[in-house]
Specification:
The complex is a heterodimer of chains A (about 270) and B (about 425).
Chain A: E1 7-13, H1 24-35, E2 40-46, E3 58-61, H2 66-89, E4 93-97, H3 99-103, E5 107-109, E6 115-117, E7 124-127, E8 137-145, H4 147-157, E9 164-171, E10 174-177, E11 186-190, E12 200-201, E13 203-205, E14 208-211, H5 222-237, H6 249-261
Parallel strand pairs in A: 1-2, 1-3, 3-4, 4-14, 5-7
Antiparallel strand pairs in A: 5-6, 7-10, 8-9, 8-11, 11-12, 13-14
Chain B: H1 2-21, H2 30-38, H3 43-47, E1 52-57, H4 62-73, E2 79-81, H5 89-99, E3 110-114, H6 120-126, E4 131-134, H7 142-145, H8 148-160, E5 166-170, H9 174-177, E6 187-193, E7 214-221, E8 227-231, E9 234-238, H10 245-259, H11 263-272, E10 279-285, E11 288-294, H12 298-307, E12 314-319, H13 332-335, E13 346-352, H14 356-366, H15 369-374, E14 376-379, H16 383-392, E15 397-402, H17 404-415
Parallel strand pairs in B: 1-3, 1-4, 2-3, 4-5, 5-6, 6-7, 11-15, 12-13, 12-15, 13-14
Antiparallel strand pairs in B: 7-8, 8-9, 10-11
Helix pairs in contact in B: 1-2, 2-5, 4-10, 4-11, 6-8, 10-11
Classes of the chains: A alpha/beta (about 270), B alpha/beta (about 425).
Chain lengths: ~270, ~425
């Protein structure tokens, strides 16, 4: 079904700074799931202070500590803004976790009131009420995938699977959408999500997926991993193909373990 | 105040006894809990009773450093120390109360306490320690501690509150050696002068001008996984598995030497120190050796794995729980370098614990296709079932890497008591 020409280039944004909470699991999952199917997967990095980069098919940015985020904020504005905007216009896939998700929004205000402007690509704003651990959104997180997305998720995964996403959240920032042009990635079943009020989690906008979910996100949610891989392949090769089915029993067991633990019923 | 203190001691001791006899309360922190609940105003007064005090903090190595120091000091002195699970204010208050006699006297020359990082500012508000040792600062249970930057601030705050203390810092860890000490006379740095340092994955920007420090060199890993090293024209040997313990030994050497203990006595005590609770200790089970290693963060996981890489026909048990004391967030296993396992001579990997599914998944993504075929990768959720399996197996030795509550559970099943071997 695939031949040598099928290849995805994965671009890791700021792997040195934006890499807390096990987000490497997302990189590994995309890589392995491509390689198991004979799709070549090349990883390149975009680091601080660089202003020359090659285009990729999937872009990824993870979460970082506050101080590292300031450095990255500045660098993004200075060197990467135009490039990333162009790539989004080119319909490239983006996966942004936690700090990465916040940085693509309009601005972020930390607990000391320092305001940092983001790339402004996503219409959202984030405020951290305090440095207190009690004010963090912290714990296991279960969401129901946005119904507008579920059909496409099933299509790329190859069959109907879970309607849920499972993971763990740990963030001080509370994120709100500033207009209606974006939709959430999911509805919160267990946990907080974007903020402690609205019971929505993450964002889906053009080809950008933003989420507060760690755990890592993709290993325990293979349907979402294949959704990203499938969309990237479709954009690049335009063929209407199905991804080879993998044996995901270990993946689904860990997915179901969280649903069971949190008392969420399921039928898949 | 003194009479009030003595009365409180009597009261707390009696109440603790009653609660324990009636089985309504247990644990070593019980006296501390009672004080926190009924007499919180006495906490400063109790803490001030502490004698010559050495506080040990940092992500990894607190317990082993405390064990080394205790062993060095106890041959000629009475040493008060806390247990590894009791490293919050409550645990230290408990320890002081339990050891205070009915006349209100605490008959000890030294106190060696390991302190959880976030509790450092609270404790140094009341105890003016003679020494503070900072072992290292890694990412650790981000759900409990928040970011490492935050932890670093706590330790800085504690050191600012202790202007007269001797501060002993890891010079190889950029996060630790950048801690500011106002009085330069009051600080000592330790480190390792060996290429093994590169294995540690210290974070932060390496400072170009390292502070002058005391360095261990010429590290050699021994057959029992202990390490020998040279320092100050002497050869030292530690028999606790793990070359990372050379840091803990160096911190203990500097600490004890500055008190005036002879270097020969220090050397002897280090050599005789047996592994603390879950730090490479060996438990015998039906003629099989169980090597027990506590893991709680990626840095520790990686170093413990690296230690096992040359063993033959390894039987490995990875036990991951997600209780509060383990960290409810298990994301950290994805930051740990389980890919190292591909170069091991592995027979079996058992994945266990309340999050055995996550550990199994991590192994699936770590192992290459060839190893996935050849290694027995087995999930056994319950720890007691793992122990049954080990009991009846033909294998002679097992290496277990466990999170904190998994280790307590294992010990309780094997010995009937979670704290003592």
């Amino acid at each position: 079904m695939y031949n040598d020409k099928h290849k995805l280039k994965f671009v890791h944004l700021y792997p040195e700074e934006m890499n807390i909470y096990g987000d490497m699991g997302n990189v590994l999952t995309l890589k392995k799931r491509c390689e198991w199917r004979g799709i070549e997967f090349e990883i390149t990095n975009i680091n601080l202070n660089s202003n020359k980069f090659e285009q990729g098919d999937i872009y990824f940015m993870g979460g970082g500590q506050d101080n590292d985020m300031y450095k990255v904020f500045e660098d993004l504005q200075k060197y990467k803004n135009t490039f990333l905007n162009d790539e989004i216009a080119n319909n490239k896939q983006f996966l942004l976790i936690c700090g990465g998700f916040q940085l693509f929004g309009k601005y972020f205000i930390d607990f000391q009131g320092r305001q940092i402007s983001g790339l402004g690509i996503l219409p959202l704003e984030t405020k951290a009420p305090s440095d207190n651990l009690h004010d963090r959104c912290l714990g296991n997180l279960v969401t129901e995938i946005n119904p507008n997305l579920i059909e496409e998720v099933n299509k790329y995964y190859g069959k109907k699977s879970s309607n849920y996403l499972v993971g763990f959240e740990n963030h001080g920032g509370q994120t709100y959408f500033t207009d209606d042009s974006v939709s959430p990635l999911g509805k919160v079943i267990i946990g907080s999500g974007n903020n402690s009020k609205e019971m929505i989690e993450g964002v889906f906008y053009k080809n950008i997926i933003g989420s507060y979910m760690h755990g890592s996100l993709l290993p325990k949610n293979p349907h979402l991993a294949d959704f990203i891989i499938g969309r990237a392949l479709f954009r690049k090769y335009g063929e209407s193909f199905q991804l080879t089915t993998l044996n995901d029993s270990v993946e689904w067991n860990s997915h179901k373990a969280i649903l069971n633990k949190m008392g969420v019923t399921y039928n898949f | 105040m003194e009479i009030l203190f003595v009365l409180t001691i009597w009261f707390v001791k009696s109440l603790t006894l009653i609660l324990r006899i009636t089985r309504r309360g247990r644990g070593t922190a019980l006296p501390g809990l009672i004080i926190e609940k009924y007499f919180p105003k006495l906490i400063p007064y109790i803490l001030q009773k502490s004698p010559y005090t050495i506080l040990i903090t940092g992500t990894n190595g607190k317990t082993t450093t405390r064990t080394f120091l205790n062993n060095i000091l106890q041959s000629n002195h009475k040493v008060l120390q806390n247990r590894s699970g009791s490293n919050l204010i409550r645990g230290i208050v408990s320890e002081i109360i339990s050891q205070t006699n009915i006349y209100g006297r605490l008959d000890y020359q030294f106190a060696v306490f390991e302190v959880e990082e976030a509790s450092m500012p609270k404790i140094t508000k009341y105890i003016k320690p003679e020494q503070i040792i900072v072992t290292n600062l890694f990412r650790d249970q981000l759900d409990a501690y928040g970011e490492v930057d935050r932890t670093q601030r706590f330790i800085q705050e504690a050191i600012d509150l202790s202007p007269n203390s001797l501060i002993i810092l890891n010079n190889d860890d950029p996060r630790v050696n950048s801690i500011k000490v106002v009085n330069a006379k009051n600080v000592l740095y330790f480190g390792i002068n060996d290429e093994l340092v590169n294995k540690f994955g210290y974070e932060g920007i390496k400072s170009k001008n390292k502070n002058d420090g005391e360095y261990a060199s010429n590290l050699r890993i021994l057959e029992n996984l202990g390490t020998s090293f040279d320092y100050d024209n002497q050869q030292f040997q530690i028999n606790i598995p793990g070359y990372f313990n050379v840091y803990n030994a160096m911190a203990s050497i500097l600490s004890a030497f500055s008190i005036g203990i002879q270097i020969e006595d220090i050397n002897h005590a280090l050599k005789a120190t047996k592994p603390a609770f879950g730090r490479g200790e060996i438990i015998n089970l039906n003629g099989k050796k169980l090597h027990i290693f506590l893991v709680k963060n990626p840095a520790g996981f990686n170093l413990n794995l690296d230690l096992l890489k040359n063993l033959n026909n390894l039987n490995l048990c990875l036990v991951l729980n997600d209780n509060t004391a383990d960290g409810k967030d298990v994301s950290w296993i994805w930051d740990s370098n389980l890919e190292l396992l591909n170069d091991f001579d592995l027979n079996t990997i058992f994945c266990c614990g309340s999050r055995s599914e996550d550990m199994l998944l991590r192994c699936k993504y770590a192992l290459n296709d060839e190893n996935m075929e050849s290694i027995n990768l087995i999930e056994i959720k319950e720890i007691h079932k793992l122990i049954e399996k080990i009991k009846v197996s033909e294998e002679k030795s097992y290496y277990l890497l466990l999170t904190y509550t998994a280790m307590l559970e294992l010990r309780k099943i094997i010995t009937g008591n979670s704290l003592n071997v």
